[in-house]
Amino acid sequence: MQFGIFTVGDVTTDPTTGEAPSEYERIKAMVRIALKAEEVGLDVFATGEHHNPPFVPSSPTTMLGYIAAQTSKLILSTSTTLITTNDPVKIAEDFAMLQHLADGRVDLMMGRGNTGPVYPWFGKDIRQGIPLAIENYHLLHRLWREDVVSWSGKFRTPLQEFTSTPRPLDGVPPFVWHGSIRSPEIAEQAAYYGDGFFANHIFWPKEHFQALIELYRERYEHYGHGKADQAIVGLGGQVFLRPKSQDAVREFRPYFDNAPVYGHGPSLEEFTEQTPLTVGSPQEVIDKTLSFREHFGDYQRQLFLMDHAGLPLKTVLEQLDLLGEHVIPVLRKELDALRPAHVPEAPTHASLLSSSSSEVTV
User: Fold this and answer.
1) Burial of 103 (C-beta count, 10 Å sphere; 0-12/13-18/19+)
2) Cβ(306)–Cβ(32) under 8 Å?
3) Which residues on adjacent β-strands are paired with residue 235?
4) Which of 76, 145, 204, 266 is 20 to 30 A from 68 in CA distance terms?
5) Number of DSSP helices (H) and strands (E) in the chain, helices first
6) Going along 92-158, which residue ranges are E strands?
7) pTM as predicted
8) Is residue 362 very low, low, confident or very high in pLDDT (cuts 50, 70, 90)?
């Protein structure tokens, strides 16, 4: 079981001080948070991709490469790589380069994002979002697995005997998750390729994501990749921690009430009841996170959102200390003990390389 954090990289005014970090300060804070994640024993740091204010992570591989040079164990990932508006050739080359620099500690999550105007900014039509995601990933999948690719499609110029460089490290492409909050077509795509499916289990009730994950599991088995309960599933989540529950609620309330993504809507109490958001003590976070397995079955990766809504860096680092010391060890022990032997662990470069070598030997 892998545990980690993901960031959307928002630059948001702290409602308690009226101050907002500069872009420079926010970027440096994201790096500090990643380093802290490794320090406290987390497995994964993931960044989103945005091309508009108030967000700063427009170049995930640049940031992750910088972090790779300062870490040794942390898996570096994206919580969205825009498969619709990025050229699949550039994705193939950028992430293969990062994979070499990070000694294989790289995977990525394909998504369409949630910013409609990004499509025309990159010369694409939002009405073609799903077809773009399907065609672009088909090409990317081939570029990482075939040394020479000739290809033609609807959305980009053809390729004639093209070789993407560098080739994936050890001949093993980065593991891919397909992230979605609403589209069964993306769950189907993940199942078709035998890739991971990440349900960004944040804003909507669990029943919505249960349907998507159930579809993915059924189709994963249909395509012959394994049993339905062996499909590779990841979940998002949100937490705010303090040793005492009432302190957590009191401190987080102004951030929740003014957050651009969910402020001025349901109350904090309503939101925590209806979604995975947990604001409270370490034990409350443990209890709620353990309930995810009851809703979705055994899964391989849990990422938490912890650094948004204007929370100051100091507070985020304190959260990570509590998460690493009091929450993750218990969750790891409990969930690993519950997982049946036939359900795989989260893929890593080492496990994918071993699997690839075994197939060649056979």
Assistant:
1) exposed
2) no
3) 199, 302
4) 145
5) 13, 13
6) 107-111, 149-151
7) 0.95
8) very low
First to last CA, the chain: 28
Give exposure, 328-337, as e/b (b: 16+ Cβ within 10 Å).
beebbeebee
Token pair for residue 42? Answer: 């987390």
For residue range 65-75, what is the model confidence (pLDDT) as tens digits?
Answer: 999 999 999 99
Helices (H), 199-239: 206-222
% of residues, the chain, pLDDT over 90: 81
Task: Check residue 115 and report its DSSP letter.
Answer: -
**Please, are residues 10 and 54 in contact by the beta-carbon 8 Å criterion?**
yes
- State the DSSP code for 123: T
Q: What is the DSSP string of 6-53?
A: EE--B---BTTTTB---HHHHHHHHHHHHHHHHHTT--EEEE----ST
Say how far residue 140 (Cα) sits from the centre of its chain: 19
Residues 135/108, Cβ–Cβ less than 8 Å: no
- d(C-alpha 362, C-alpha 117), whole Å: 49
209 Cβ contact list (under 8 Å, min separation 6): 181, 199, 201, 235, 296
For tokens 């990932």, the residue is 77
For 330, the token pair is 């218990």
In the block, residue with structure tokens 């998507």: 212
Neighbours of 262 (CB within 10 A): 18
Is domain 2-360 in CATH 3.20.20.30, yes or no? yes
**d(Cα 29, Cα 316) in Å, to the nearest integer?**
10
